[in-house]
Fold each of these.
Amino acid sequence: MNFSESFFAAKFGITRRDLESYLSEALARGGDYADLYFEYLATSSIAIDESIVKSATQGVSLGVGVRVIAGERTGYAYSDDLSPEKIRHAAQVAALIASGPAKVEQTPLGEGRKRNLYPVLTAPSETAFKERVALAQRADVAARAWDPRIFQVQATYADNLREVLVATSDGVLNFDRQPLARMGVFALARDGKGVPQQGHSGGGGRYELDFFQKERTPEYFAAEAARQAIVALDAVEAPAGEQVVVLGPGWPGVLLHEAVGHGLEADFNRKGVSAFSGRIGQQVASPLCTVIDDGTIGGRRGSLNVDDEGNETQRNVLIENGILRGYLQDKLSSRITKATATGNGRRESYEHIPMPRMTNTFMLAGESAPEDIIKSVPRGLYCANFGGGQVDITSGNFVFSASESYLIEDGRLTRPVRNATLIGNGPEAMKYVSMVGNDLKLDEGVGMCGKEGQSVPVGVGIPTVRIDRMTVGGTA
Amino acid sequence: MNWDALPDLARGVVQQAVAAGATDAECTISEGDEFSANVRMGELETLKEAGSRGAGLRVLIGKRMGASYTSDLTPDGIRRMVQSAIDLAALTTEDPHAGLPDPAELGSLKTDLQLFSNDTAELPTEDRIAIAKRAEAAALAVDPRITNSEGASFDLSVGGRVFANSRGFLGHYRSSYCSVSAVPVATLDGSMERDYWFTIARNYKGLEDAESVGRKAAERALRRLGATKVETQRVPVIFEPRTARTLLGNIFEAVDGRSIYRNASFLAGKLGEKIADERVNLIDDGTIPGLFGSSPFDDEGVPTRRTPVIERGVLKNYLLNSYTARKLNMKTTGNASRGITGNAGIGHGNFFLEGGTRTPGEIIRGVKNGFYVTELIGSGVNIVTGDYSRGAVGIWIRDGELAFPVSEVTIAGTLQEMLNGIGEIGSDLEFLSSTSAPTIMIGEMTVAGR
């Protein structure tokens, strides 16, 4: 597709010449670099509760953000009105970060990318709403049918289509069409008059509606949520203190996201405030661990053709055989530290300044059979599913909350245990990884990562791993 | 489009929706301007300044609901938004409890809630930057072990809210706040700790002085240096106000009318029962002038009010909007909350725990062996069962003194036991956000470490 056929050119009549003139306005007071980020976002969501469609919402938002970098300084302004006067005004406000005469020779805008990691012909948001309502209804029916003890179900379906255009003063002109869809199921189970227990499930990615009809059906997510709620009915108190912990494959990869991922974002490291600062080349994990951040996996929730600064995403090795290899860069940090771009500059919307962010973060498979890993543990905890996590990047302490876990006794999974938080220290925790399974699995596609008030969709993945020592925050 | 034109626009949207076939409609418009200046190591790092607005519409056609929103407030954008909501309503299922509040319940407080001030907007940009620089410089000057900084910020936000419905309600209000924060980093033997402090007010004059913010942030980071893990044990746990308020956040979720009618809360069905120590008085009050949880009406056009949630340990009220009230056969408590998208959920006004008589120092002195929690991380709270397990940072208490810093531990129990186990409530209640608590002590929790 040529620029002239792209969304903003076709729908709003924006030309190369317009973009170049906004960029020179932004650099008029002496900035070193400027970029424009145009965004059009159409969203829709459906929520079913008590088998009733209680909420159905559609909407659009539109705007442009203008950024100017002068040395290490950033000026930012945005407008929700694409009229030339308003965009110029935003450019003038952002330009104020610099003071002096214009000094940068603008590079003429080039032509955009060619690859497409999510070749979606009809984005879900462009198909009939009715079909999407039907998906959520199927999930509701299936969860209720799973077991008579399921007494409450909420099923949600949400999708969006984002059209973006990035133009930079160093000549990048890129545009992209980014679909994203997700289903979610929440189920409550109860035994007679006992305490209710919950189960959650969900997934999706940058796919067409087809995905939910063929690959991951509403029934699949419904069964998973219902199963977790039923399992929890028999849960006993979680142990308290240091344990051998085995993480199951898939979503437990959130460990990597918290324990190492955030700590490797270049902004923190440039400022020297991350527990990983200055540790490139050092051993920060067991030699069994190789951790990758890859924004190029087809259809994945964390994947992007180009990041929100117009750079192509790529596959970046963060940790190789336990040795720290690299940081995740955005434009500002790579300019300041003279590092190569990694395609990790992301932002929540046109109202936000880009930052280094993860895409899909996972650990490569090892050689152990998952059953051998469990068999090797005389006493410990097996975590199959997690809620969210959080990290203090400066001290390196991180937590993640197990939502489905089991006691391991004499090499076998025995009783399910109640929710417990696991806590560790980033540069230390992964040194205790003693076995890595051959069963790498990526998560189902539900991850949302928050940083400094900005949320972006991400993916995680991990094979089964054994961690010899980690503190489990139970009560028993 | 300027602020003065927005009420008419909202009323016009409602009229268009009714003309297009809606039996009832409500329109929310919000607008806001933001400014932020971040400095780091004495230099300006980012300046951000911009504004945006958006409208949301919810329509009912009989008992079917549809909702839409747009950032395009041109006649064309509005027309598309109205059509979209009407189209969706045709596709949803009937909900016997769907509807707007009764006309008799609608209204707006007449008192001046002092939510808006223009004084900060008049402060020149250079002065705003200078304030952030002063906060950071004060932090860096406290101790040579403060070696680095994640920066300091001056933030300003001015916003407006308009709400109109087809039952004759039209209300609007503006609000403002400004804040100063600092995040210094302390270093000892190659390991780092950071902490923060902030001040926030409706107007510039209400802010704590920038130097004091910086110094407090630095002292907080310094006292974390050299933190260790402790042995796993059951001990009394004291929450300082900043962590105590997160517990209130958990209780708020558990009294949210949506969790109640779904039976997805450990407090469902417990109205009138004793669920907490008798010293506990927990209140929601959206009517207190100047505070951050105050507003003249909720997001369905119902006046805000004071609602006792827990009184002398007894659960008195859930927090409801009109939908959850109909579901539970109760009355709305004026707690509807929404952005411009979707349905009204539940929000709180000023949700706070009434202060007690003893100072935090007196409470700490009464503990022989315990844990003073200054930061909590993670999301390990299950509102359905009440199970509680979170990562914690703080200071160990030995013989009534703050003895040594602790990190990489968790605290765990159940919210039921924690509410009943509240042994002390401090006299240090301050309203720094819409959720506020004084220092509290819980008799016993499991601290998991080594």
Amino acid sequence: MSVFVIRRLLQSALVVLVMSLLVFVGVHVVGDPVEMLVNPEADQAEIARVTQAFGLDRPFYEQYGLFLLNALTGDLGLSFVYGEPALKLIVQRIPATLELALAALLMAIVLGIPLGVFAGLRPDSKVSRTIMAGSILGFSLPTFWVGIMMIMVFAVILGWLPSTGRGTTVNLLGVDVSFLTMDGLAHLLMPALNLALFKISLVIRLSRAGTRETVLQDYIKFARAKGISNARVVFVHLLKNIMIPVVTVLGLEFGGLIAFSVVTETVFAWPGMGKLIIDSIHSLDRPVVVAYLMIIVLIFVVINLVVDILYSILDPRVRLRDVKA
Amino acid sequence: MATVQQQLADISVAEAGSRVQTPFERFRADFFASRVATGSLYVLVAIILIAVFAPVISPTNPYDLATVTVLDARLPPGAKSGDGVIFWLGSDGAGRDLLSSIFYGLRISLGVGIASGLVAVCIGCVVGLTAAYFGGRTDSVIMRIVDIQLSFPAILVALVLLAILGKGVDKIIIALVVAQWAYYARTVRASALVERNKEYVEAAKCLALGHRRILFRHILPNCLAPLIVVATLQTAHAISLEATLSFLGVGLPITEPSLGLLIANGFEYMLSEKYWISFFPGVALLVAIVSINLVGDQLRDILNPRLQR
């Protein structure tokens, strides 16, 4: 077990290192590094100072080492636009993105599982066919376009929901959250649904397939033969058993939610990390872009590492195969 | 002895009576057995024809500065322009006919999606075949890289690259290729692993044929079925991804107005209820993606040996 964890840790560190090299080379080779590091309005003295400070006159490997050292101490440069440390700006935006992603995850579970179970229990009914057609559409619809259409219908035409921002936030344990106020909830509803759409379709498919397999099992037949009520068979015997694959896949897909929140946050002007990176790309705020790329890679590597380790605990075959290979 | 000959004769007579289907005929019959798939294929062919012949069939040229005028800006669907041309789907903020813009946009969207798919297929084939054929350390190193890449969502990979490279047709194609090649490599490797141990490969090795010849002339043709399925579905994905990235403003430049950019242009007019500028390009994008997906699903059902009846 520990061999497996150590191997995976080393591999994760290697991935982060390679990504940092890629980002560094990308930023420094594709563009002019001085231009990346100083404010476009800087004068000659400032350019000379930055060239000196970042060691741009030194060999490449020394420059990269310096970049890594600074990154390790949390120094990823100052934002041109906000004049604050890039890292701090991004960390401040993480709670908003996490709130959106978690709300979407919750919606995927609350809407997806009942619809999927229903479609699995009555595969030939009209309602089930509609649900499945809807889930195909959910897979194919481009997220950003659905978001725009949702704003059009619910915010502009019907005027039911606000179209942008987080609304009133409440400070909970030092973090601003939207879901505790009615105004915040109203702001959260549309973006969360938009982000959840793809995952709802996925959960519908998974729970439908699981239900169709499970209803044929002997223990379900036995439970029915014992005269247990339909509700108890479905909610206890069936649901417990289809939850395993659904929970596994949703756990794996959580990273996808964070990645796709870039799109949803841009459409709904939700002030999270994703909106920040897009704004920063547009305003050429390169320190923030570099910092975002490093942090998002780190987040993903951590998610993947946790999933891998959990898997190896649940399924010993994974770690045995890996140690042998 | 005579009876055996008699039987053989009977068989040949029976074969002559009901002509044996060629594999392609069987494939065609299977494909058109589904009405949904047939319809999707027709829609897809129509979309490709529209994209190819966009300059010929468009009512106006939306990028001809001589005819486009701001006086026609934001006309609702069905309105008549100053020149007397009817804008069936309305016009955008610069006075361009939306229907024509969509035709031209399809050209760019499909072009980028297909071009990136072709390059990714080539890279994926070479990498996947190499991994499967040589096995051992080569295989485990390559597949570890593929696994790591696949643990990042495609949109994130593309976003990281575009944040570094900047906008441009070549850049978005590079980003889409990098985001996709691993799927192809994994698919090709999986089927090549099965083919590698078959007798015809052994025979080819005994004839002392070169590695390259065995890989590309013997093994690759037998791995095509799953590759075609994945390529179809991935192309739909690439088109959707390009539209998303262009909408975010990190994909194509304003000079290459794909469907994603058309939708982005309409976004600012949304709040004044001018829905058509974003709505119709989105519908075109949706129809293209859904038809490709449905055709791909049908191909998968036919070509997957595990589902064969």
